[in-house]
Write a structure and sequence with these properties.
Elements (H helix, E strand, L loop, with lengths): L2 H4 L7 H4 L5 E7 L7 H14 L3 E7 L1 H4 L6 H17 L8 E4 L5 H12 L2 H4 L3 H7 L8 H15 L5 E3 L5 H17 L10 E3 L34 H10 L11 H5 L2 H14 L3 H8 L4 H28 L2 H29 L5
Parallel strand pairs: 1-2, 2-3, 4-5
Helix pairs in contact: 5-15, 5-16, 6-9, 6-16, 9-10, 11-15, 13-14, 13-15
The structure holds tryptophan (TRP).
Length: 354
Amino acid sequence: MSDASTGAANPHLAQYAAKGLKGRILSGVQPTGNLHLGNYLGAIRNFARLQGDYECLYCVVDLHAITQPQDPKQLAAQTREIAAAFLAAGVDGQKQIIFAQSTVPEHAQLAWIFNCVARVGWMNRMTQFKEKAGKDRENASLGLYAYPALMAADILIYKATHVPVGEDQKQHLELTRDIAIKFNNDFAAPDFFPVTEPLIFGAATRVMSLRDGTKKMSKSDASDYSRINLTDDADAIAQKIRRAKTDPLPMPETPDDAEKRPDADNLLGIYAALADREKDDIVGEFAGRQFSEFKAELTELAVAKLGPIGAEMQRLMKDPGHVDAVLRDGAQRARALAGPILDDVYKTVGFLKP
Ligand code: TRP
C-alpha cells in the first residue's frame, strides 16, 4: 500500500495523522441485486478491516444504480440490504459512516461541476461504460455515460484520501485523480482536492463463476449455481460448491499447474481468501488429492465464515428499523462533512452565496 509514497508530501493527510489515522476512505456499493461472495471478498470484507486505520465512509450508491432501469420497490429494499451487509460484515455504524448516496445531495451537486471539468474524450475511454452500454450505445442513459464523474464526486465531496478498489474500478479511480488535478489547476487552487490513492487488496479480489472459472462471479448470471449469495444458507452453499465445475484430474500439484486450470484455481483462491491464507499454501495442502475431499473442506469453511454474516443480514432485514436509523444518522454526519466542502467548491467556482 502507498503510505510511504504519500507521507509528508500530501497536505491532506496531516489532520488524520494527528488522530493516529492514515487517512479518510470512501467506498460505494451499488444496490442492484443480491450480494455474492465476490462482493464480499473483493470489497465488503475489507471495509471492516480498514476501520481501525482510516476514517471510513461507506455509501450505498443508489444514484449510480438508476443509470440502468431499476424497480423502485426493489431499489429501496436492496439499499437496506447493502447497508445490512456492511453491518453484518463488521462495520461499526457508529464509529464509521454508513449512508445512502441520494440522502446526501452534495454528491449530485458536485457531480454537475465535475461534468463540466471532465472531458468527453476521457469519458469515451471508460471500458465499463462500453461494457454496460453494450451494442446499443445510442440507447444508453446519459447518466451511465456520466457515471464516473459522479463516482469522482462521491470520493472528492469528502476529500477522501484513499479508496479501496478492485481491478474493475481502477480506471474510474484514475479518472477521479484526473478530475481532482484538473479542478485544482483550472481554478488555481493547488491541493484543493487530494489526488486520491487506491488501496489494492491481494488474493481473491477476483472471484470467478462457479460454473465457468474464466468469467467473473456476477449477480447478472442466469444460473444461481454460478455464485454464492451472502444470504444463502448452509444447504445452498453446500449444494453450489458440490456442483461447482472442476476438471477430471486430481487437485493441482503446483501453483503453476493451478493457474492453467481456471476452475480449480478459482476454488483454491476462494478457499485461501476465506481462510486468510496464501493460495500457494492451499495448493500445497491439497496437491494431488480428490476434488470431492477439497470441496467438503471448502464447504465447511464457507459455511463457517459466511453463515453468521448471512444470518445477521437476515435478522437485520426482518426489522429494518435499526438499519434505517443507521442510514439516517450516517446521512446527517456525512452531510456535516460534505456541506462545508461544497461551500468551498462553490466559492472557488464563483457561485454567489444565496
Ligand atoms: N462504481 C463502483 C462499482 O460499480 C461503485 C462506486 C460508486 C464506488 N461510487 C464509488 C466505489 C466511490 C468506490 C468509490 O463497484
